[in-house]
């Protein structure tokens, strides 16, 4: 049966006379929130609802009577949509899967489902539904589970790890004069630096599991960005990057914890530096920092011309423990996201491979 249908789907289009479906059912299907395609036993498209031809950005009359082959060769159907139609066909019709999920060019999630068999009397019903909200709920649940696990883990081991690290640090400092006499003081410096890095990782674990309560004060956005840029300028120059702080227009003041706000912006600027240093070419690294008012909110942006990210990386960017860095903990952006949400804001990100990345922090302004 499947093989016969596979062949019929690919037959050339033929003239189609509408009216084969009961008008009551047709009216119902017109108003569901899913896109619907109904192919008959000969592989001819007999019904398409307005949601579906809106998704395909095609005219209904240019679709009715089409076979799959004709649909794939439709001159007005976009290249990306043709690719997804073909993949859906292969996954469900050829491989026999009941559903297929994909991400479109705008980052939205979709699920295509197929209903066939005896109950369909030889016809094949394809439904297409956006599931971006469901995916967001899944990701949020995953983050909450990860953070809950992180809280238990960090609380139980932080004290046990810090105690021996403190002892090791103390003894290394006591040995410093002896290491100096042997000409090996560099070894002591490396050990101390690694102990400090381990302590920083433990601090990130603790911060991400139980962020401190914000010490709320009024923060001028211009002063915040100027201070952070001043802190990172020398580091940026050493890494071959230029930081450009855009002039801010008007007084924009937010309410929040100034230390936590600095932590978020510093983290994003340092991420931008690392993305630039990972480029393979000799292009001069540029980091743009600025802010603008939009209604009752301020949009703080940090953009770079670094290596950029693909869509799979973007999807997991704020997940705890996810990192693409060799020595990363995968907690920096997770902590930053949580801090901004605790301040009533949100972080959005856009990126293209080999072009760069742009973070936008949205926060409510004090009126």
SSE topology sketch:
Layout (H helix, E strand, L loop, with lengths): L1 H8 L13 H8 L4 E5 L5 E4 L1 H7 L3 H4 L4 H5 L6 H16 L4 E5 L5 E7 L8 E7 L1 H43 L1 H6 L3 H25 L6 E5 H18 L2 E5 L7 E5 H20 L7 E10 L2 E8 L6 H5 L16 H11 L3 E7 L3 E9 L3
Parallel strand pairs: 7-9
Antiparallel strand pairs: 1-2, 1-5, 3-4, 4-5, 6-8, 9-10, 10-12, 11-12
Helix pairs in contact: 7-9, 10-11, 11-13
Commentary on this structure:
- The strands form three sheets. The chain has a five-stranded antiparallel sheet with strand order 2-1-5-4-3, sandwiched between helices. Strands 7-9-10-12-11 form a five-stranded mixed sheet, covered by helices on one side. A two-stranded antiparallel sheet has the order 6-8.
- It is built from 13 helices and twelve strands.
- A hairpin with an 8-residue loop joins strand 4 and strand 5 (124-130).
- With 367 residues, the protein is an alpha+beta fold.
- Helix 7 packs antiparallel against helix 9 (185-209), helix 10 (221-238) packs parallel to helix 11 (258-277) and helix 11 packs antiparallel against helix 13.
- It has three domains: 2-130, Beta-Lactamase, CATH 3.30.450.20; 135-209; 216-364, Histidine kinase-like ATPase, C-terminal domain (Heat Shock Protein 90, 2-Layer Sandwich), CATH 3.30.565.
- Residues 1-5 and 13-20 have low confidence and may be disordered.
- The chain is 48% helix and 21% strand.
